[in-house]
Amino acid sequence: MTSDTAIEEAEAAIARLATPPMIEDPYPLYDAIRRVDRVYESTTLGAYAVTGYKEVNAAARMGNMKNGVRAATTQRADWQEHASLRLFLRALVNLDAPEHPAMREVASSVFTPKAIREMRESVEVLARRFVDDLAEQAKDGRPVDLVPTVASPFPVAVICEMLGVPDSQGMLFYKLANDWTRVWGGGNYSEEELAQADESVMELRGYFSELFEERRAERRDDLISAMLDQHDAGRIDDEDLMALATFLFISGFETTTNLISTSIYTLLENPDQLELWRRNPDVTASAVEELIRHGTPISGTVRLTGEDIELGGKEIPAGRMLFLMTAGANRDPAQFTDPDRLDLTRNEGGHVSFGGGPHYCLGANLARMEAQVVLPLIINRFSSIEVGGEVEWRTAIGLHGFEHLPLTLSE
Fold it and tell me: Of the four listed, 19, 131, 194, 338, which is most buried by Cβ atoms within 10 Å?
């Protein structure tokens, strides 16, 4: 029988995980929940907290789920009065059947594995450019912030090139998109953040509208032109076009920005693994997967049961919210040996960082490829890498990464 103390600890852990700012090291909190139950019905949440690997994996793949964040957002009576919430609820990540399969098909037809593979050479060129910038700024021995120098602008430049967004506008779009994503948690934002998100979304819409008009006048070999072809064929309307373009932009950088910064920090905390990678570049693919597992850039997602289901031995009725805690699942000791340990050669089954089933992350292969390119460039370019000042973690619930990561570097 579970003790009252264990239940109190689990409820306290859930309350902390659901309250901004995002905690730097949330993993002991997931452990506290999992000690009570892998599928835990929380009185604090009024929902189920799912921390078991097999259970998160199974729930993510179920076709009878609805998008829980969408449900949470629409519980706000005035959601239609906010431009940021209206566009957010049209984003691919928030759609349910029958809209989701139709939009996913359109997105998959333009954001294809072939298009990602063909970007490899451009990604390598861009990565070298930003790592060269990092080296140049580090020449005098002063700390250089990895986030605005590489972790943010590199993936933004990649997705801008794919979409056809002018390079000069990329970081402006990034700033506006970051304002918008603060309301993507389903309720963990202030009224001030919502007002800023509304303002930034209107500005972002204006920029993308201009790009659409430019491509209507002259098509190019980019994703915006491909999306316009889908629009002109009647497969998506004006609002779907806007939602898809802005979502692809965000999905092209959000995970990778967090992944780059947390990976470098984690490697510095595990110098034996850093040296292993330097000595053996053949581990690059498994190293990136392990860093994605260990650091889980986006720590969870929410689903709503569309019908009665069985999960983890529990009968869960329709209409109940599930918090799929992917970061917790990625450290489940029932799945991974010594799960808190970084092991770049680990081979114990895949992580669940990119979700699964109908909502599997569309940008997963792009994030993998970018990390496989840029991380080896950084660790092999600099013989010495050290944290060079006070780090600042991101505060948005669900996003695990850095706002600032100052480093001192020498070649």
Answer: 131
